[in-house]
Amino acid sequence: MSKLVRRSAVLAFASLAAAAGTLMAPTAAQAQPVTSGSFTMTGDPGDYISQGRDWSYEVARGDRLTVNGSADRRVITVSIDGANGDWWYADFSAPAGAAIAAGTYAGATRYPFNGQGPGLSISGDGRGCNELTGTFVVDEVSFGPEGYLEDFDATFEQHCEGGEPAARGRVVIHNAPAPEQLTLSVTPASDGTFSRLNGAATVHGTVACSADVPVRINGDVTQVKRKTIIRGTFSASVDCKKNAEIPWSATATPTGTTPFQLGRAEVNTTATATDPAYGTTVTDKVTTTVSLTRG
After folding, report:
1. CA 194 to the chain's CA centroid
2. Is residue 83 within 8 Å of residue 102, measured between CB atoms?
3. What is the reported pTM?
4. Where residue 61 falls among pLDDT bands split at 50, 70, 90?
């Protein structure tokens, strides 16, 4: 069973009324495999989630833990895939407008239907609470950019459907330091060419990146001649290499009947790439004046 199907099966316990009245969580960063970590849980007799049993998983023993932190650091979700086939989810949410920090979060209700207050949800192996109350205590937490989770140590207590039996446990995560965010810069050259054959303008420049990534270059060229505005758009793709200046060139065809000509033109250039570590879009925009000569 895929993680998406598993998660959907557990979320199906939610009531339609709760779903209609609550906003979902902020966008999370990309899933991170946990370098070193563990998830342990025990439960009282009669607790639906734990079934009154002890559960224990650890990366060092071959179990797989994955974590997502939201970009605003409000939500941490841990996925546990046991080597024996068990699967669990542990969700922790700070109150609205706050980031998860060390401290006690009492009065938590079921994430992601927790509204303005703290949220908690321990579910898995096909079982989830429809409604819950709980508390979690964060002893340690540290983030990198975009919700990248470096360290997390928290204990929890969860009660399903207003009952007294509880599931109790602990999550411990230690990851490598967060990767650096992608940096990107585009530098258009101050010279370009125009073609007397088709009226197009060709511009060029360089792009520099802090990682090996494909980069999309887009922009427009605008020139005014005898009170006539001449404009055209251009695009190009290049494979940027870490810490190197990579050349690019692109041609803009005028949208009207007047061709680009000798003289100055304004060039707006945008470079766009996806950060390979965080999945975010990184852009750099530059406006320059270019002197067009005959090509």
Report:
1. 42
2. no
3. 0.77
4. very high
